[in-house]
């Protein structure tokens, strides 16, 4: 190899000398990696951190909620352990008063579809793997019940299988905080209704998803419209007025097929400690029962008391299961909840027993979720909370479901 002009060595042997002569600098787009200074312009054109063109359905912060609320950093929030006995008792009193009248008894909707029978009965499944599979099966059964042909791997990642079938499958790579449903080309072109399905939409992600489904689907191009979607469920080609409803619409039959709207919502709820007042959809409910951001910040942290024992249970089950492997990754996503200071029995100085903390944690979750239920009900949806799997499988076993309420639709458009 011939040395380049001005170089003592060929490219192979001069590489070390060349690297010593060149300066590396932090990438201005992402300082977590560096680049040769003389290659900066070339790097900026292909850097993975460069700003990419926004898709047509991207609308900045459309599902973010309040814009004038200052988020209190976690490190600046008053620790629960620093509360006096009187302050803690007053907080619990407010929680119980606000929860008065809210039923804590949920319907058990644990289902199992025949398509998952073979997966569940696989003798290779250890105890830990079986628990995770059972949770996924009951969850998927809530969605697939009634379908005769379901294709799913152990991890139920079926993107590739959908592409081989007679259907259109597209993954939208966008933060749900910025996703505007009524700008997705296929929904606009085909005037399609939407069914929202979510599992492990941790904390604030559930609120962003609900606002995306309920509000962004009725947003006009000239800005965010706060009008309840139930008032705008009728498609453009249907005349308004109660006298124009068909017999099927009056009886509530197939109403969801008559409107360009959200036909249903199914979300497995979890990680309430990751909720955020700014994005929370149940703020009006909290205000109605005399609560605000301060109480919300305490309750969302105290909600982790309901699941403080989960990590220990998972560890015990997995310690003897060498094949737990990937199956435990879903649980790993929630480890932060189990290891939070609020889960430490010493953090409240022995003022409450373990069982009392657990009950209060469940009550915090219930209150936060009820705010979501009222949000949906006020916008014309019949929404309920129910169990989708047994607590021995997962302590995060509550499912939120919602469908358009035919009565609300008819009344709001009359």
From TrEMBL:
Reaction catalyzed: cytidine(4) in tRNA(Gly)(GCC) + S-adenosyl-L-methionine = 2'-O-methylcytidine(4) in tRNA(Gly)(GCC) + S-adenosyl-L-homocysteine + H(+); adenosine(4) in tRNA(His) + S-adenosyl-L-methionine = 2'-O-methyladenosine(4) in tRNA(His) + S-adenosyl-L-homocysteine + H(+); cytidine(4) in tRNA(Pro) + S-adenosyl-L-methionine = 2'-O-methylcytidine(4) in tRNA(Pro) + S-adenosyl-L-homocysteine + H(+)
Keywords per UniProt: Metal-binding, Methyltransferase, S-adenosyl-L-methionine, Transferase, tRNA processing, Zinc, Zinc-finger
Class of the enzyme per the UniProt entry, highest EC level: transferase
Region (Disordered): 1-30, 225-253
Domain of life the protein comes from: Eukaryota
Any single GO BP term: tRNA methylation
Extent of Polar residues compositional bias: 236-245
Domain CHHC U11-48K-type: 24-51
Amino acid composition bias (Basic and acidic residues), ranges on this chain: 9-24
One function term, GO molecular function aspect: tRNA 2'-O-methyltransferase activity
EC number(s) from the headed UniProt entry: 2.1.1.225
Keyword Ligase: no
Entry annotated with the keyword tRNA processing: yes
Record family assignment: Belongs to the methyltransferase TRM13 family.
Function: tRNA methylase which 2'-O-methylates cytidine(4) in tRNA(Pro) and tRNA(Gly)(GCC), and adenosine(4) in tRNA(His).
Name this protein carries in UniProt: tRNA:m(4)X modification enzyme TRM13
Organism: Alligator mississippiensis (American alligator)
């Amino acid at each position: 190899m011939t040395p380049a002009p001005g170089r003592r060595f060929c490219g192979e042997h001069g590489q070390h000398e060349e690297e010593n002569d060149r300066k590396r600098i932090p990438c201005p787009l992402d300082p977590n990696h560096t680049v040769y200074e003389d290659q900066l312009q070339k790097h900026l054109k292909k850097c993975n951190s460069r700003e990419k063109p926004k898709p047509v359905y991207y609308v900045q912060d459309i599902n973010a909620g309040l814009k004038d609320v200052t988020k209190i950093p976690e490190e600046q929030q008053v620790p629960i352990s620093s509360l006096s006995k009187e302050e803690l008792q007053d907080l619990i009193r407010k929680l119980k008063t606000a929860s008065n009248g809210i039923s804590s008894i949920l319907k058990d909707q644990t289902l199992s579809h025949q398509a998952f029978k073979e997966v569940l009965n696989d003798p290779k499944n250890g105890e830990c793997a079986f628990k995770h599979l059972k949770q996924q099966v009951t969850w998927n059964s809530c969605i697939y019940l009634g379908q005769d042909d379901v294709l799913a791997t152990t991890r139920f990642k079926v993107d590739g299988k959908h592409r081989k079938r007679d259907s259109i499958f597209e993954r939208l790579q966008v933060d749900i905080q910025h996703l505007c449903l009524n700008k997705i080309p296929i929904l606009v072109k085909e005037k399609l209704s939407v069914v929202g399905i979510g599992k492990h939409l941790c904390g604030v992600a559930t609120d962003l998803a609900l606002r995306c489904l309920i509000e962004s689907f009725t947003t006009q191009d000239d800005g965010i419209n706060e009008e309840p979607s139930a008032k705008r469920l009728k498609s453009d080609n249907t005349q308004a007025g109660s006298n124009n409803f068909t017999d099927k619409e009056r009886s509530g039959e197939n109403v969801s097929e008559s409107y360009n709207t959200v036909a249903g919502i199914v979300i497995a709820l979890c990680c309430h400690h990751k909720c955020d007042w700014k994005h929370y959809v149940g703020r009006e409910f909290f205000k109605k029962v005399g609560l605000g951001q301060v109480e919300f910040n305490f309750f969302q942290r105290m909600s982790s008391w309901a699941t403080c024992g989960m990590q220990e249970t998972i560890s015990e089950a997995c310690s003897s299961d060498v094949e737990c492997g990937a199956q435990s990754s879903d649980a790993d996503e929630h480890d932060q909840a189990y290891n939070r200071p609020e889960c430490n029995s010493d953090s409240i100085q022995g003022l409450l027993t373990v069982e009392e903390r657990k009950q209060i944690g469940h009550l915090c979750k219930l209150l936060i979720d009820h705010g979501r239920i009222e949000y949906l009900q006020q916008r014309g949806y019949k929404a309920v909370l129910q169990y989708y799997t047994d607590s021995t499988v997962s302590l995060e076993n509550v499912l939120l479901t919602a469908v358009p309420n035919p009565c609300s639709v008819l009344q709001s458009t009359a």
